[in-house]
Design goal:
The chain is of the alpha/beta class. It has eleven helices and twelve strands. GO terms for molecular function: isocitrate dehydrogenase (NAD+) activity; magnesium ion binding; NAD binding.
Length: 335
């Protein structure tokens, strides 16, 4: 049965890298169909809304979306579209792999393979817990962490580790100082970890985690943590393996999932045909895993690796002189 995917082409370089990604997926001859939907500045210009109801309905109907970068206008009155989507569809698990690839600009040997699992709906990102006093002198932020939210994200990390053969989960926290919110997260994580004796579990304070990631990243396998810490750590991990151009992300809930390139819309290079499509292609690989097509996901990732190894039509950020389209065509040829 054909699976229909909601496709959001996004802003800036989004349409270019989405076209490249769909070209590669079409070359794989999978039983997938695309349903176009708008969000971001394109949607605001066409429909007067950053996130039109038609787009929301499409995601509800298909339950799976592939999304290129979106631009949220800077200023009051505009809420992050990504945060809105995550909360609207309760996409509580943000999964960000960072692995070494050949012929990329990395400070480390090709032995990094870390997955950050970030709680996606609680913590410091709740807009309804933020306020500024009338005189503009004081800003407050309310953080809310629940047992339910902590339990399900930690369980997701351990279940994922068991399913894909990972051996170690690191619980990252700041319970030594944030004894209420981070303390509850850590206490809950310990309860969940005790149910997975086959997987090693260790605990690490977030500041030490960042130092250890820079000094000895190979010690990490799966990291699970709260929203703000996970946002920072996952970008740090991307920097270890060559930057956000190689960083995919999955937002997963019980009744839906959105897969995306986590980098920005890069308006400075939009329309020039030089954007690297790898992040969105790797996100498509996560999507195939989620759809129960792990062999096809591996096939896609192997084609990307082979193209990087051959230095075949790599985009300028990867040291080549290829274009977004020619790079995608080189990957497609290997499929």
């Amino acid at each position: 049965m054909t699976q229909t995917i909601t496709v959001i082409r996004g802003d800036g370089i989004g349409p270019e890298i989405m076209a490249a990604t769909l070209h590669v997926l079409d070359a794989m001859k999978l039983d997938l169909a695309w349903e176009e939907a708008d969000a971001g500045m394109v949607a605001l210009e066409k429909h007067g809304d950053l996130l039109p109801q038609a787009t929301i309905d499409s995601i509800k109907r298909n339950t799976i979306a592939l999304k290129a970068p979106l631009t949220t206008p800077v200023g009051e009155g505009f809420t992050s579209i990504n945060v809105t989507l995550r909360r609207m569809f309760d996409l509580y698990a943000n999964v960000r792999p960072a692995r070494s690839f050949p012929n990329t600009k990395s400070r480390f040997p090709n032995d990094i393979d870390i997955i950050t699992v970030r709680e996606n709906t609680e913590g410091a990102y709740l807009s309804d817990g933020q306020a500024v006093s009338e005189d503009g002198e004081t800003a407050t932020l309310v953080q809310r962490v629940t047992h339910k939210g902590s339990e399900r994200i930690v369980r997701y990390a351990f279940e994922m580790a068991r399913k894909i053969g990972r051996k170690k989960v690191t619980v990252v926290h700041k319970a030594n100082i944030m004894k209420s919110t981070s303390g509850l997260f850590l206490k809950t994580a310990r309860q969940v970890a005790a149910q997975y004796p086959d997987i090693e579990c260790n605990e690490m304070i977030v500041d030490n985690t960042c130092m250890q990631l820079v000094m000895k990243p190979e010690q990490f396998d799966v990291i699970v943590t709260t929203n703000l810490f996970g946002d920072i750590i996952s970008d740090l991990c991307a920097g270890l393996v060559g930057g956000l151009g190689l960083a995919p992300g999955a937002n997963i809930g019980e009744h839906g999932a959105i897969f995306e390139a986590v980098h920005g819309s890069a308006p400075d290079i939009a329309g020039k045909g030089v954007a690297n499509p790898c992040a969105l292609l790797l996100a498509a690989g996560q999507m195939l895993d989620h759809l129960g097509m792990p062999d096809q996901a591996t096939r896609l990732r192997n084609a990307i690796v082979a193209t990087l190894e051959a230095k075949d039509n790599l985009t300028p950020d990867l040291g080549g002189s290829g274009t977004t389209t020619s790079f995608a065509e080189a990957i497609a040829r290997r499929l």
